[in-house]
């Protein structure tokens, strides 16, 4: 089963510090798995990669937002008044640059009224530490539902740094949505931000010596923007 695979992947890599699966959701659906397979395939060109990433992002965000709070609202159909609903809270999507940009279009198709913020972070190739170079976080987000998106959760340095930064201004609920997670990245985010649930399409086997997720899909930013 998928749960068994996830468990084994985590145990294989982290026998001395098995991260709890609490707060981690692997979105288990054949369409998610199919999109991910195409994204992993090195023969998939950037044009298809972008479209697939947008589509799978919608599916992942859809699942991640299952517990959004709602308010009742009266609706006039052409025939009568009936009960409807509206979302109770503002939604803010925060994309970690560059690769998170590949998920914002799908997020906005799902939630057209969402505000979008950006955090520019790149990983230093030697130290693998995140380096911040840009930030634009929407105002009025104090109590918003904040969804941080980045396709890759590798060492977890970028995600932890983004969440640290956001928590300086934002008091609302946060969640982290990615495509592929390494056990190390999950452990890092769960340890530093145990209040932030993680949603992903897959937990992969391991990180290699260059900090790449294996089997992974390569450098997500390069594959989105054709910069490899
Ligand atoms: C990638 C990815 C994440 C980060 C994950 O970005 O999009 O932001 O690496 O790695 P981590 O969990 O070890 O921090 P990268 O630094 O390659 O920048 P880019 O998206 O601009 O290419
Ligand atoms: N960032 C990526 O884009 N890919 C990886 O495998 C790891 C970090």
List descriptors.
228 residues, alpha/beta, seven-stranded mixed β-sheet, three-stranded parallel β-sheet, 7 helices, 27% strand, binds 1-O-pyrophosphono-5-O-phosphono-alpha-D-ribofuranose, binds uracil
Strand order of the largest sheet: 1-11-9-7-4-5-6
List ligands, each type once.
Answer: 1-O-pyrophosphono-5-O-phosphono-alpha-D-ribofuranose, uracil
Major sheet details = 7 strands, mixed
Helix-strand pattern: HEHHEEEHEEEEHEEHEEEEH
**How many individual helices?**
7
Helix content: 25-40%
Q: What is the residue-mean pLDDT, rounded to a whole number?
A: 91
Rg from alpha-carbon coordinates: 18 Å
| Annotation, overall tally of beta strands | 14
Q: Indicate the proportion of strand residues.
A: 25-35%
**What does the oligomeric state look like here?**
single chain
pLDDT under 50 segments (min length 5)? 11-20
C-alpha end-to-end distance: 35 Å
The secondary-structure class comes to alpha/beta
Brief summary:
By secondary structure, the chain is α/β, with parallel strands linked by helices.
């Amino acid at each position: 089963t998928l749960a068994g695979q996830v468990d084994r992947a985590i145990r294989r890599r982290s026998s001395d510090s098995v991260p709890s699966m609490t707060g981690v959701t692997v979105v288990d659906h054949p369409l998610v798995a199919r999109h991910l397979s195409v994204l992993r395939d090195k023969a998939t060109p950037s044009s298809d990669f972008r479209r697939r990433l947008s589509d799978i992002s919608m599916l992942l965000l859809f699942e991640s937002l299952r517990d959004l709070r709602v308010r009742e609202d009266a609706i006039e159909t052409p025939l009568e008044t009936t009960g409807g609903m509206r979302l109770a809270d503002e939604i803010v999507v925060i994309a970690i640059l560059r690769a998170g940009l590949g998920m914002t279009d799908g997020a906005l198709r799902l939630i057209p009224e969402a505000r979008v913020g950006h955090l520019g972070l790149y990983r230093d190739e030697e130290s693998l530490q995140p380096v911040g170079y840009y930030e634009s976080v929407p105002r009025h987000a104090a109590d918003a539902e904040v969804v941080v998106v980045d396709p890759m959760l590798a060492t977890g340095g970028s995600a932890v740094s983004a969440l640290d930064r956001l928590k300086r201004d934002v008091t609302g609920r946060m969640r982290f949505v990615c495509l592929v997670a390494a056990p190390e990245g999950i452990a890092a985010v769960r340890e530093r931000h145990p209040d932030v649930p993680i949603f992903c399409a897959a937990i992969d086997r391991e990180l290699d010596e260059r900090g790449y997720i294996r089997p992974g899909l390569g450098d997500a930013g390069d594959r989105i923007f054709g910069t490899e």
